[in-house]
Amino acid sequence: MSETPHIDIDYVANLARIELSDQEKKKLGGQLDDILGYFEKLNSVNVDGVEPLAHAHAVNNIWREGDEPGPTYSPEVLTGMAPESRDNQVVVPKVVE
Amino acid sequence: MPETYFKTIAELSAVLEAGELTSVQLTQAVIDRTAAVDEKVKAFLSYDAGDALAQAKASDERRAAGKALSKLDGIPVGIKDVLAVKDQPLGCASKMLENYVSPYDATCVAKLREAGAIIWGRLNMDEFAMGSSTENSAHQTTANPWDLETIPGGSSGGSAAALAAGEAIATLGTDTGGSIRQPAALCGVVGMKPTYGMVSRYGLVAFASSLDQVGPFARTVEDAAILLEAMLGKDDLDSTSIAPQGDTDYAAALKEKKGPWKLGVPREFFGEGIDPEVKANIEQAIDWYKSQGCEIVDISLPHSDLAVPVYYIVATAEASSNLARFDGVRYSHRSEEAKDALTLFTKSRGEGFGDEVKRRIILGTYVLSSGYYDAYYKRAQKVRRLILGDFEKAFEQVDAILTPTSPTPAFKRGERADDPLAMYLSDVYTISVNLAGLPAISVPSGFTESGLPVGLQVIGKAFGEADMFAVAHAFEQGHDYHKQTPNL
After folding, report:
1. What class does CATH assign to B4-262+398-483?
2. pLDDT tens digit string along B41-55?
3. pTM of the model
4. Contact (CB<8Å) A12/B369
């Protein structure tokens, strides 16, 4: 993080699984460079020996007493939300030829 | 007396109890007001007047049978479009969830129902709660009721504007980096973010899970306390929720806790970037506390200028993970161009998300990507601990901290639309509170010369809501800014 990075927008958009138009790539790339440049401020502070904080309160794994089956939604309700569904299953384009 | 729709929960609860008004009459007044002004304000994405009146009728029947559930019974409360309400659309103001209808209630909504509140309408917001102006909604831009050419703040801009315009008696919002307090300040209402974990996040569409909190918008501090009391509690459906701690009898706290308090003022919050009118206003508010016998302590939060970069690293990293679920498969927008599994994801997400959401997902993906994780994400988490440490040190000396809520009053629409960094700085005074998980409230503290509201932020200790409410309530009692309403 020593110099302002020039973000490889194609690479990151692919990682994020978002298709961007050429125009969007140009606009976003420039803005993200500015924002990442601003993040350089974080280099001004010494963080040696500081433990990272992921959460304001200490969070530990939560183990449930038992995982008893309870009432839930019908398959019709849940698959009915999908853009396309049939016979209580979600329809997607063919994955395996 | 103000119009019915500008009264407080406390006032309305008394007249409902006395039989001078029915919930059906009150709800109808709110519906009529909404029909009359929302064309200008555009706070609501949708509302179902028939459903609201049916809830009101049930409330009146309960009350007639002597079984009113709480002070909230029969009071219409508007809901931000990021919270699940059973059988109502849940769209997060996004094209991505345009046709989604929730099969269940968020826990906070269920708790309000248990208290008898009327669940009223879907309120506009920045898409997926990302923004500070409510200009990122895929559907409409909400106007600030005090000046329709300006923004209401964000991301809960619809919640703040609806309340300020008299389109609800109270509303719910969510606050990840200031998204309740900043719009509350800009719209001249009270907005409150609880200690992290006090209100369940179940049924809140997650943006940044370690920061998001549900909280109330209300006309007075007392009303905000009534709403919070109804919503708090540990919820098995949210593993980060926490059983109520500290003094949670807020109604009693408002009456009993009178000060004088030791109040901290962080000098870092009055430097570069603050509007001179806002600065003068907040200094006046601090002087008022001094005149009431409070001791004003000059404190330092030395890492506060790093809160914005830390926030935008942590929040976008968490967002990039949380928003991975919108893949076009199970419930979100699906591209008609999708030919295979990969293009189903990429094209659906490219079409469904708006600019700001794409910007944040890409940024979050970048800071978590191989080779950059340590430099950005891990470093940000370390600085987050330093920010929390600053607050802990400050609270060894003081009971609460006073700051401006927003560095500027409401700005003109479009003014910062192409400058995301300038937009991100709108939350410079609220963000560090979320990083530290503390409670904070914004109360109206006056107006600029051009008539735009200004807000004072009171920050409390973790689980110190009772003291924070009491400090804010004292200011409110000494002024009448909260009683003023916009001309629409």
Report:
1. alpha beta
2. 999 999 999 999 999
3. 0.96
4. yes
